[in-house]
Amino acid sequence: MIEPKPARQAQPSEGTSSGQNSSGQNGSAAGKTGRKRRFGGTEPQIRSALKFYKVLAYLTGAMLLLLCAELIARYAFGQYLFAGGTNAVTGEPFGLGFADAEPKGVVGGVNISVTVLIVHGWMYVVYLMSNFRLWSLMRWPFAKLILLALGGVVPFLSFIVEKKFHAEVEAELADNPQAPQRY
Q1: What is the Cα–Cα distance from 132 to 123, expressed in whole angstroms?
Q2: How far is CA 69 from CA 41, 94, 103, 125, 155, in A?
Q3: pTM of the shown model
Q4: Which of 58, 90, 98, 117 is such that its CA lies 20 to 30 A from the CA of 179?
């Protein structure tokens, strides 16, 4: 049976000099705290979670921007985005475009505005799962999970947060090559 190892282990201090830790690294995060950095998964698992997070960050961010545009059209101009149906005033076929929200401008068409709301909502749920997966594999503090989650509700933040955390994960993997090796 394999004995589980604790998330962080104290570094032995004997045999080191001039600020080097036992692996010979100078000034790394492990050397500064006196603890060995451990991840919650292997490097391929972390890279897979990072790729999944990156794709969902961009998709959720794009859907959030589309949602913001839709909400501006709805509440500032009183328009919904419709596809197909019949113009309620003239009775002519309606292709794709904006129509009055009140009174109803299109009858029998697909309300793209509501579709954007629903798709963004479900995409945000999957985005939160990707956040949790990356957060748990990296063993970050809870505040980072909150910041990751805010990326899906604040316009443009998902792009900024993704760039920052992608670089941070890559740096942590490079600085701690033995950390993801659990087995």
Answers
A1: 14
A2: 39, 21, 21, 21, 11
A3: 0.73
A4: 58
Beta bridge partners of 36: 9
Per-residue pLDDT tens digits for 50-88:
999 999 999 999 999 999 999 999 899 888 888 888 888
pLDDT in tens, 135-163: 999 999 999 999 999 999 999 999 999 99
Q: How far apart are CA 81 and CA 58, in angstroms?
A: 23
